[in-house]
Design goal:
- With 67 residues, the protein is mainly β.
- The chain has no helices and 5 strands.
- It has strands spanning 12-15, 30-36, 44-48, 53-56, 61-63.
- The chain is globular.
- InterPro entries: YorP (IPR018591), YorP_sf (IPR038027).
- This is YorP family protein.
Length: 67
């Protein structure tokens, strides 16, 4: 079954409160989607403002307004 993503690669995003259980130190950081993942567990690889690359589910991200 093919996987579909709502956000394109390169989109600026903010890591929201839904990520607090797995990655509490990332909540509130801005980042950029660098890869669309073909994984049952995660949807996106995101490089945040510190340079960390972390995997997130779609509901853990919000697009930056105007981004």
């Amino acid at each position: 079954m093919p996987k579909f993503w709502s956000y394109p690669e390169g989109l600026k995003v903010i890591i929201n409160e839904n990520a607090k259980n797995a990655c509490p130190h990332h909540v509130g950081r801005e980042g950029k989607i660098i890869e669309l993942l073909h994984s049952a567990t995660y949807d996106y690889a995101v490089s945040d403002e510190t340079g960390d690359i972390t995997f997130f589910k779609e509901y853990e991200l919000n697009p930056v307004k105007g981004g």
